[in-house]
Design goal:
Blueprint (H helix, E strand, L loop, with lengths): L2 H17 L8 H13 L3 E2 H7 L4 H13 L3 E5 L7 E5 L1 H17 L11 H11 L6 H10 L8 H8 L3 H13 L3 E5 L8 E5 L1 H15 L13
Antiparallel strand pairs: 1-3, 2-3, 4-5
Amino acid sequence: MELREYMSIRRAYNLVRQSVPAKKRLTFEEFAILCRLALAGVPQKTSDIADYQDALRPTMTHRTNHLARLGLIDRGSGMKDKRNIVCSISDDGEEYVDFLCQKTCDEILSGQALSRTSPERVRRYVDAMGAVYCTASDLVLLGISVDQRGVCSVTDLVARLGLLQPTVSMSVSSLVEDGCVQRRRDPNASNRIVNLTLTEEGRKEAEQLCKLVDGIVVRRRMRFRPA
């Protein structure tokens, strides 16, 4: 998967997430779980979903609990092994994932990567992207790294990532403390804009994230075994 495609979908979904009521907001990882279950068409073991997202079982339990409370997935025992907890998408979940995929398409601007894609294709992209966990700080690193000038401001990142300004500012502060980002004031700017640049450590971190994104494979069709 190309980085510009990854960033385009993450930005679009970040904007979609802000637009829906707080009680119905899903993390990107939860959105990806819905996409995976919708594509599977058959119940999936919770352990398999955890492996897919490389998540600890308590983390996956938290995510599926949230989806179940919203009525977006159903949980039960496996057909072959009653000890297995399996998840399947509910009718409400199918409707909601269709809604989220369409809204994500709508938020991709003309000229951006995947601006002509379809909701069904977004579903497959999000499913594949769900295998790579990226925090807000990770997205900030990627957002700075793709800037052709090598520098950008918090305002630039808000527009580029679709995240709220407080989220970007907090992530930048954390990255500065970790030695990955430097703040530099532009002496020529009348409004004293603070430019952000990656340190050597930040560039290394961004390169590793880019390699993870490059390794994402978006398949046309996926085969799933019944749980």
